Amino acid sequence: METATGSPGATGWRTSPPSRRIVQPWCGDGRRASDRQSGARPGQEHDTVSRDHRGSRQVSASVRTERLALRPFGEDDFKAVRSYLSDPQVMRYVDDPYSDKQVRRFLSRWVGDDPPVLALVRRGKDKVVGHVVFHRYEHPDVYEISWVLHPKYHRRGYATEVGRALLDHAFRDLGAHRVFATTVEGNDAACRLMATLGMTREAVLRKSTRHEDRWLDEYYYSVLDTDYADRRG
Ligand SMILES: CC(C)(COP(=O)(O)OP(=O)(O)OC[C@H]1O[C@@H](n2cnc3c(N)ncnc32)[C@H](O)[C@@H]1OP(=O)(O)O)[C@@H](O)C(=O)NCCC(=O)NCCS
């Protein structure tokens, strides 16, 4: 379960010691943990992402809430994105903090008009507060969601607000059958967020994630179309 030091990942060259690896699928940057850890070549990783998105458009960038909007990243977002992706506390349960080079690679990767990783911005000011990963996962009607926000914007209900909007989008507009999210033991904010969104903790992968010389449980949460319909009456 180690990433070879210096092996290329989807967002840059990994140089940190394997003992710090966290196995958080897609959480930070839209990469699958197994890709990161297997040392897969960049092309292979990218193919995995592309395959999930080929075929039909999800256009999540059209999602708006009262305070927030989603949009594709641009190169001008470098400073804003570096400010949170390089923060060890933010990245604690996601990945190693990103270098400038990794941030640039992250930004150059998630361009286009319907990317799986979208900037989360304050409406009006277009201020980047973080990003959301929202993408099809293996089946056309199954989606994964995750969030990474700048610490300045934590605990303001932003992740809940955009999460609710994306669940509405998934079930109402995209005809999703299932939306899931993963996190790890100790990430209380993510666990609370998923519970607030009405996601059920459906699986625990016991001590499956290597993090700072410890093995952590990995949690899978989901909401199904039937749950969503029940809640809406
Ligand atoms: C997880 C994260 C996205 C939550 O974003 P957020 O905008 O602060 O979340 P919200 O303000 O919508 O809060 C959602 C719930 O979590 C709770 N919460 C937020 N931060 C918390 C924390 N540090 N500890 C415990 N609970 C927390 C809130 O009180 C709220 O609970 P409630 O619905 O019962 O009132 C944010 O903490 C983050 O970006 N963390 C770093 C990256 C990460 O770990 N992402 C998760 C990967 S899936």
Helices and strands in order, then pairings?
Elements: E1 8-9, E2 12-13, H1 33-38, H2 42-53, E3 68-71, H3 78-85, H4 100-109, E4 117-122, E5 127-137, E6 139-149, H5 158-173, E7 178-184, H6 188-196, E8 200-211, E9 214-224, H7 225-232
Parallel strand pairs: 6-7
Antiparallel strand pairs: 1-2, 3-4, 4-5, 5-6, 7-9, 8-9
Coenzyme A is lined by residues 27, 90, 93-94, 130, 146-149, 154-160, 181, 183, 187-190, 192-193, 196.
Key structural traits:
Aminopeptidase; 28% strand; alpha+beta; 233 residues; GNAT family N-acetyltransferase; globular; 7 helices; disordered N terminus; two-stranded antiparallel ribbon; binds coenzyme A; seven-stranded mixed β-sheet
Description:
This is GNAT family N-acetyltransferase. InterPro entries: Acyl_CoA_acyltransferase, GNAT_dom, N-acetyltransferase. GO terms for molecular function: acyltransferase activity, transferring groups other than amino-acyl groups. It comes from Arsenicicoccus cauae. With 233 residues, the chain is α+β, with helices and mostly antiparallel strands. The protein has one domain: Gcn5-related N-acetyltransferase (GNAT) (Aminopeptidase, 3-Layer(aba) Sandwich). 30% of the residues lie in helices and 28% in strands. The strands form two sheets. The chain has a seven-stranded mixed sheet, sandwiched between helices. Strands 1-2 form a two-stranded antiparallel sheet. Helix 3 crosses helix 4. It is globular and about 45 Å long. The N terminus is likely disordered. The structure holds coenzyme A. Coenzyme A binds next to strand 6, helix 5, strand 7 and helix 6.
